[in-house]
Target: Ribose-5-phosphate isomerase A
Amino acid sequence: MEALGMNAKQLAGEKAAEWVEDGMTIGLGTGSTVYYTIEKIGEMVKNGLQIVGVPTSERTRIQAEGLGIPLTSLNEVEKIDLTIDGSDEVDASFRGIKGGGGALLREKMVADISDTNIWVVSSNKRVDVLGKFPLPIEVIPFGYKQVANKLQKRSADARLRKTEDGDIYVTDNGNYILDVYDQAFTDPAEWQDWLQKVPGIVEQGFFLGIVDIVIAASESGEIELFESEKS
Model:
């Protein structure tokens, strides 16, 4: 089953590279599916494609540099033509949860100035209601327990993210992540509004009204394209 799952991710990731054109500034997302997009773009660069990439994480930067993809920083661009990223979940209204890879803040900043946003996912990431995947919330280390307490008072099961070694997970920005488990977000916009008012929260993993195109690949090899009304 794992091999099939990886195949679906590769199909979706490589399909997205078809939207990349010569001369573009490309936002390079973070995650196990967009990994394959970046690998494909690296192959295209070796074959003469001229683009510049804006990585959303140190992990992506290292991968892209290793493939010879020219890079710049978000501070050095006025806009981004196209961003290709993954998503941990996406519903029929094109609302998503992102941040499983810990890069939600940079991903959202890059997406915000992108003309077009494409998400590449395996078909099992499409859901009816957001919340099957834990919602990541990036918080500053100072007083993070106070943020967790506020979430608990709202009956949210917020857990501090840890590494495989049991250490506290630290983002590229030097912050912590609280993951909210087993919460059905029937009104993600209301939750987003509430979270944005809580002091100490740097960013939350709701990506609402952002994506233009979702590319979903099934384990059987079928690829589906979904375009939002904003695209």
Q: What stands out?
A: The chain has two domains: 8-127+208-227, 135-204. DSSP finds six helices and 13 strands in the chain. The first strand starts at residue 25 and ends at 28.
